[in-house]
Amino acid sequence: MAYFYKPRCKCKGKKCTCGVSWAYIIDIGKDPKTGKRKQKKKSGFRTKKEAEAAAAILQNEINQGLYIKESNVTFEDFAKEWISLYKGSGIVKESTVRVRKHEIKRLSDYLAKLKLKDITRKQYQNALNDLIMRGYAQNTIDGAHRTGRMIFKKAVELEIIKKDPTEYTQVPKKQKTVEDLEIGNSLPNYLEKEELQHFLRVTKKFGLDQDYPIFLLMAYTGIRVGEICSLKWRDIDFEEMTISISKTYYNPTNNRKEYKLQPPKTPAGVRIIDIDDTVITELRKHKLAQIEVIMKHRDIYHNEDFVFASIDEELPGFPLYIKKIGNRMRRLLKLAELNTKLTPHSLRHTHTSLLAEAGVSLPQIMERLGHRDEDTTKYVYLHVTKEMKKEASQKFKELMENL
């Protein structure tokens, strides 16, 4: 039963200027702890009819057991609670949690101090639209939207809010310029076969300690730089000539002592790669050289079985970190007079292109690279095979002309 009233006017006999409006009080149940009845009050209605209509909606929710007393928690505070629950689930990597925190910051620019229950669909959509206007990359905004949807979905699930304002919202697609289209149609950087041979020759001759086995292995297997840094000798089967990939290196601060080893991002990342005798021979040489380093620093060596480990006097045995390998590669590219914008990941694209050129099928390549689905790999593969098909057509034409 609802009770409707007009709060007492405070103008004390003068001409009313306070704009007193209609309000309602309605019983919403009993407190389970005290047994006392609980009431919901709401004011601000211009007429009694408006107050009656709003009370009727609330009464219907109560009768159907759908009433939720929304919390006054702000987006900022609930996001902190959510990230704690997300991290504590035990099914996400630390690196993923770190990404989610960055995505929350993007949304917090607009929503931080707003009560979760007051955020409208229009406000949320405007936030996404403004991120586009501020020039953020499409992937960045897509990520922020994914995180936003998870946060509000959890708030609904916990009965903190009634409705999810992210429903029916979407990330607007940025209108591409001619320059964007030209860049988008370009292939990722990779080395041609002759360039790779030249790069490896330069690496063997001028490379710093461990450079040659590192870049040879990356070029011949297509494994990621994080997988290289976390690789252990127990992962290499010299008899079967295989490498097992089951982890990746994580160290966002580049503090060599604070590294972590994490499982691959997807189940497909766990795999066994066949290697040839060229790689096996080089790894055997590298292992012998490493044994000498271990003996030299036996008292302080961080002996955790890493294949590629530091040999310096300060922290011998700690795994090489990703940034260092990138810097090493840049130095060698400069010496080889090759494109210095190439990165260790470019060797992965190079491996894809050369496998395609060798006639290896796309499913086989994706299995070797640890991809369940990867557009860039497909793009490189289709580009190479398209060129091969053109070459086949040209060869057939030349054959017929020479008859």
Secondary structure elements and their pairing?
Blueprint: E1 2-5, E2 22-30, E3 37-45, H1 48-63, H2 75-88, H3 94-111, H4 121-133, H5 138-157, H6 178-184, H7 193-206, H8 211-221, H9 225-230, E4 236-237, E5 242-245, E6 248-250, E7 260-262, E8 271-274, H10 277-296, H11 322-335, H12 344-357, H13 362-369, H14 375-401
Helix pairs in contact: 2-3, 3-4, 3-5, 7-8, 8-10, 8-12, 12-14
Description:
By secondary structure, the chain is mostly helical. The protein has 3 domains: 2-63; 75-177, Orthogonal Bundle (DNA polymerase, domain 1), CATH 1.10.150.130; 193-390, hpI Integrase, Chain A (Orthogonal Bundle). Helix content is 50%, strand content 9%. It has 14 helices and 8 strands. It has helices at 48-63, 75-88, 94-111, 121-133, 138-157, 178-184, 193-206, 211-221, 225-230, 277-296, 322-335, 344-357, 362-369, 375-401; strands spanning 2-5, 22-30, 37-45, 236-237, 242-245, 248-250, 260-262, 271-274. Strand 4 and strand 5 form a beta hairpin. Helix 8 (211-221) packs antiparallel against helix 10 and helix 12 (344-357) runs parallel beside helix 14 (375-401).
